[in-house]
Design a protein that fits this description.
Blueprint: H1 5-16, H2 19-32, H3 37-51, H4 60-69, H5 80-91, H6 97-110, H7 113-122, H8 133-139, H9 145-152, H10 157-161, H11 164-177, H12 193-208, H13 217-221, H14 227-239, H15 242-253, H16 258-264, H17 268-276, H18 281-288
């Protein structure tokens, strides 16, 4: 049986919220459904006090249901107040796309950090997502890592809505601020020559300055590796730390370049682990950050 995102959120909250919290949320959703914006703004702010801030206790089946209800939706790190806030937003009438967009923008402009994180994660479940592409591009300019990650990580909207320029800026910024690349949905699908070129230049400059290179960089750069990149990868594969060698091996395995095979043969043990799937990008990201 398939569920809608609203049904899933309602079920998850029902399992954890107190009777008083549940009753409060039901009342607020009814008010918001009548376009009562004052109730929306107040309830959005009060949600943590009324339903709590606990992490949602989701099972593997819950996560599978979420992915089926909305491809790319991964609420494993959501909290109960976040779920309640999203339900409030989903109760808002949306027939008038301009009014809906204006209401959300007002919330964005007055939101504190937890509220902004909630709003950016909520967009993937809300209507008129195409109206928020500029909001996403603006959001990745933030200096607050948790807000940046609410856009870049476990969120299918950047993959679906961002221009190539905005996408490339997001990936570059992730590397600059120490945010992992692996949780970026569509990372391999949206690899492009311009992004790879920027990363290859960045890596070459870092190596020349004897500065560390983010190991996940090679995942995005390798598909378009040129002579400079291959030389850098060859040198680091021979003398780098084990995590760096593993990342380069995994990146080289994914390319169809003859030179990549030549480099991999210089360390057959790591190459074999990369080819067999023993090394994964998820594990590399977990060890790198």
């Amino acid at each position: 049986m398939s569920y809608t995102p609203v049904q899933l959120l309602e079920n998850w909250i029902l399992r954890q919220a107190s009777d008083a919290g549940q009753a409060w949320l039901d009342t607020q959703r009814e008010a918001v459904a009548t376009s009562d914006l004052k109730s929306l703004y107040m309830a959005f702010g009060f949600a943590p006090r009324k339903v709590g801030k606990a992490d949602l206790q989701l099972t593997e089946r819950d996560l599978n249901d979420a992915a089926e209800a909305r491809p790319g939706w991964m609420p494993h790190a959501w909290t109960i107040d976040q779920a309640a806030r999203v339900l409030l937003l989903m109760s808002l009438p949306s027939e008038d796309d301009a009014a809906f967009h204006a209401t959300l923008e007002k919330l964005f402009q007055t939101a504190e950090i937890r509220e902004q994180i909630c709003l950016y994660q909520a967009l993937q479940l809300l209507p008129h997502q195409e109206l928020f592409d500029d909001r996403l591009s603006e959001g990745i300019r933030t200096n607050i890592k948790s807000i940046f990650e609410s856009i870049a990580h476990n969120n299918p909207l950047p993959m679906e809505l961002m221009s190539e320029q905005a996408w490339n800026q997001m990936v570059l910024k992730a590397l600059f601020i120490g945010a992992a690349l692996d949780p970026i949905e569509g990372l391999d699908r949206r690899v492009n020559p311009d992004l790879a070129r920027m990363l290859i230049d960045f890596a070459h400059e870092r190596r020349a300055a004897k500065r560390p290179i983010p190991v996940e960089l090679w995942r995005v750069a390798a598909p378009f590796a040129d002579e400079v990149a291959l030389e850098d990868m060859r040198a680091l594969f021979a003398s780098g730390e084990q995590l760096e060698q593993s990342a380069i091996a995994l990146a080289l395995v994914s390319t169809a370049c003859d030179e990549a095979d030549v480099i991999l043969k210089t360390n057959p043990e790591i190459a074999k682990r990369a080819e067999s799937g023993e090394i994964t990008w998820r594990e590399i990201a977990q060890q790198a950050y």
